[in-house]
Design goal:
The protein is mostly helical. Helix content is about 80%, strand content about 0%.
Amino acid sequence: MRIAIRVIGVLLLLIWLIGVFVFVRGLLRTDEMSGNYAWMVPREGYSFDVTKWKSHWVFYNAYIVVCCLLGCVGSVLLMRAQRRGFLLMAGAVVLWFLLPIGLRVLGLSAYGYEFVSLRSNLSLLAWGVAFALAFVALRRLGAPSAP
């Protein structure tokens, strides 16, 4: 059982690290991307506030980087055969799930990337539930929470 949990931890760590890479890259390219949108959007007949877009982009990406880093810590816990890593990853995914919903409920959502689709957001929730169920299943099977 421990070996399977460790292998799952390694695979999930790779996925979380890809997420960190993608969203840190988005943060690092903020100025370049805002410059691209600044000339493109007005041509389509829409107004574009570069400062507002940058603040939204940086907040959104930084928030997701934090979620991915929490997922990395959870994966490392799994690699150490600690089932509570599943709980930490469940929390990370649920936080990620709540971001676009929170922005929309608070009226702060201004751009399409802040709410991709209901299906993709529900898939995040499904992953959170799956991680929580994995924790519960391992607890019932008597898997240790510490090595």
